Amino acid sequence: MRYSGFRVFTQGLGGNKGWTPAWRRPDPKPDYDIVIIGGGGHGLSTAYYLARNHGLRNIAVLEKGYLGGGNVGRNTTIVRANYFLPGNSEFYSHSLKLWEGLERELNYNVMHSQRGLINLFHSDGQRDAFARRGNAMLAQGDDAVLLDRDGVRRMVPYLDFEQTRFPIYGGLYHPRGGTARHDAVAWGYARGADRLGVDLIQNCEVTGIDIQNGRVTGVQTTRGAIRARKVAMVVAGRSGQVAAMAGMRLPVESHILQAFVTEGLKPVIDHVISFGMGHFYISQSDKGGLVFGGDLDFYASYAARGNLPMVEHVMEAGMTLMPMIGRARLLRSWGGIMDMSPDGSPIIDTTHVDGLYVNTGWNYGGFKAVPASGWCLAHLMATGTPHPVAARFRLDRFRTGRGLMDEEGTGAQHNLH
Amino acid sequence: MRIPCPCCGSRDRREFTYYGASVFLDRPAEDAGLEAWDAYLHLRDNPAGVTRDLWYHDPCQSWIEVERDTVTHAILSTAPVARRRA
């Protein structure tokens, strides 16, 4: 069923009795050309682009829980292309362009809102670094505006500009940055993939990967064995467990990252604002809740919930930046399981097993990457060659030391990101 | 989260600094080769369940090997790294 304003109107007249499910609930077939392990944003977009760009149809997405029940449904929904390093820069630029056409492409309202993103800086050195980053973004063909303190003040007058610890010197403004409705992105890709014939199989946990003579032949699942010519592991924080089924150890540690939302308030924060010194970022959802997050708890965890010291730290950072939010009441907090790579950049690559592909290492930035990640993994699986904008996301870059992309500049080592 | 320091008893998590998996102690020989060093520096078991990792207790300045569950955050045992190294 195609969605449109006219359809909403006529359905409204008919008591909304004519809506049909957005996707089928098929039973797994015994045999597919391609199996995607993981029904999150990246897995669903991979399946969608395999069908849409490469004309492949015999595809299954296996999800152990429900579609979009992992990190794609638990993040701070920020979409941006303000990366600095070659490798990351062209990839996220490509992703943002896909975002800009996504609603028409999917015939689905993902509520992509390019409300602008402001990265604040607090010293002369940081201003220089942000000017350089802005120039890199412009050179990439994206947009960036360096704002001085008055420029920031005109846009967001409610910040505490005079704080003694981190006085605000200005900000790097990225007008095309913004937010999107996170669940809707998963649902939109799920519906799009289903319409192209992809089987989306939920409550189907992969328990083994079948390999014969160095070639993948299928997977074992809680709903029976499934044969496949190609298998992709797109499981974010669970990458360690799934890769172990293929005898692999990955350069990935799973860490906890917390996020928070307040009760609904009247519109007050028009942009996405990030405060790097406190590792704090905030936007306001269309429902009115202030959505914000902080840094990792900094220990390996699969608990999907964090500890109170980081909650306290995030609240302190928020109060430092914008004291006005002190009266808002926190409604919910949650934790996502982050697949942290040593250099903070992702991996989209083949493996030592023929026909087995890996997509992991998204750290705390996987949401904005959903369209391009699927686009590029689909390209790799269908054509056998890496997509040009993801060619540097190699699995072996840590082993060889070539092509590390340490965007933070803290060192390509596990405990430093 | 509270962590029992072998030296100081049960202490708040904020007094500790996390380093990572305790395989860091099993340093390969200098001539062990590329694969061994890659495995040591980069590759991780990353278990969902019982793990051993290294924490530094700032007040008593001791490194501690902590056995804990990454799914429940339960601490199972702690031991000073110095004893293991001895």
Q: How many beta strands in the DSSP annotation of chain A?
A: 18
Strand content of chain B: 35-45%
Largest sheet of chain B: 4 strands, antiparallel
Structural class designation of chain A = alpha/beta
What overall geometry of chain A do the principal axes of the alpha carbons give? globular
Top-tier CATH class of chain B: Alpha Beta
Q: Report the β-strand fraction of chain A as a percent range.
A: 25-35%
Number of domains of chain A: 2
Number of helices of chain A: 11
Shape of chain B, please? globular
Q: What do you see in this structure?
A:
The complex is a heterodimer of chains A (417) and B (86). Chain A is α/β, with parallel strands linked by helices. Chain A has helices at 5-13, 41-54, 88-100, 102-106, 124-140, 149-155, 182-195, 239-245, 308-321, 370-383, 397-400; strands at residues 31-37, 59-62, 78-79, 117-121, 145-148, 170-174, 178-179, 199-201, 206-212, 215-221, 224-233, 253-264, 272-275, 280-284, 289-300, 330-340, 347-350, 356-360. Chain A has 2 domains: 24-75 and 183-251 and 343-416, FAD/NAD(P)-binding domain (3-Layer(bba) Sandwich), CATH 3.50.50.60; 112-178 and 253-340, D-Amino Acid Oxidase, subunit A, domain 2 (D-Amino Acid Oxidase, Chain A, domain 2, 2-Layer Sandwich), CATH 3.30.9. Helix content of chain A is 28%, strand content 26%. The radius of gyration of chain A is 21 Å and the shape is globular. The mean pLDDT of chain A is 96. Chain B is built from 2 helices and 6 strands. In chain B, the strands form 2 sheets. Chain B has a 4-stranded antiparallel sheet with strand order 3-4-5-6. Chain B is of the alpha+beta class and 86 residues long. The mean pLDDT of chain B is 94. Chain B has one domain (2-85): Folate-binding fold (2-Layer Sandwich). Chain B is 15% helix and 42% strand. In chain B, a hairpin with a 4-residue loop joins strand 4 and strand 5. Chain A binds chain B through residues 238-241, 244, 249-254, 298-303, 307, 309, 342, 398-399, 413-415, and chain B through 1, 12-14, 18-21, 34-35, 38-39, 41-48, 51, 53, 70-73.
